[in-house]
């Protein structure tokens, strides 16, 4: 299984866009989808647009599916929840927007170096320095959060794959508990790396 959300060098139009522009476009696009994608028809149009973005980024179908495959059981859970409390149309829209949002975030992480992302976030947050807030630390936290999302999805997928390999049925004890433990270990690794670099 490939690692999700890791930068892939390239010369596509999306690769060449400044990191700040990509982050702003990502935030705006997700907000627009959340507000205006309210039915399956609009969801389909949004899906075609996201596919177009992947094409512009020169990310093939296989790599794209690798970014989304670990979401299957999460989307399944959300879908069932929505079906119970709303209806099938709303369930499709909510799950679809979730998948498309993650797909777009994956495009940003796949086409943007962490250093470029960190520099862009620091620049955007510079005005906060006037009130005593350190933009570099907030930018670092945000960059880590963006990188942590695909990492957490990958951890969950690995735990579920191990469960299926052992022939075990799904249960919170078998999947959720190991995933939480693995995530905490990953967080400890992040913390140790930051401490080693003199960051609190």
TrEMBL record:
Which parts pass through the membrane?
A: 20-37, 43-61, 68-85, 139-159
Gene Ontology cellular component annotations, sorted alphabetically: plasma membrane
- Keyword vocabulary terms for this entry: Membrane, Transmembrane, Transmembrane helix
Keyword Endoplasmic reticulum (UniProt)? no
Q: How does it sit in the membrane?
A: Multi-pass membrane protein
- What are the subcellular locations of this protein? Membrane
Under the heading CDD domains, the entry gives: EcfT
RNA-binding as a keyword of this entry, yes or no, is no
Q: Which PANTHER family match?
A: PROTEIN ABCI12, CHLOROPLASTIC
Full protein name: Biotin transport system permease protein
Q: Which organism is it from?
A: Williamsia limnetica
């Amino acid at each position: 299984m490939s690692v999700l959300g890791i930068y892939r060098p390239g010369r596509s139009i999306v690769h060449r866009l400044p990191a700040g522009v990509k982050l702003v476009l990502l935030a705006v696009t997700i907000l627009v989808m959340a507000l205006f994608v309210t039915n399956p028809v609009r969801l389909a149009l949004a899906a075609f647009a996201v596919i177009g973005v992947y094409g512009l980024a020169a990310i093939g179908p296989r790599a794209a599916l690798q970014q989304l495959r670990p979401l299957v059981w999460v989307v399944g859970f959300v879908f069932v929840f929505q079906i119970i409390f709303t209806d099938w149309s709303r369930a499709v829209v909510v799950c679809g927007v979730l998948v498309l949002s993650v797909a777009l975030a994956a495009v940003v992480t796949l086409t943007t170096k962490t250093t470029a992302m960190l520099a862009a976030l620091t620049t955007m947050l510079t005005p906060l320095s006037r009130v005593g807030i350190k933009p570099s630390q907030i930018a670092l936290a945000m960059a880590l959060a963006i990188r942590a999302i695909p990492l957490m999805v990958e951890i969950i997928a690995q735990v579920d794959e191990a469960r299926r390999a052992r022939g075990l049925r799904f249960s919170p004890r078998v999947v959720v508990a190991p995933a939480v433990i693995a995530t905490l270990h990953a967080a400890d690794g992040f913390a140790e790396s930051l401490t080693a670099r003199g960051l609190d």
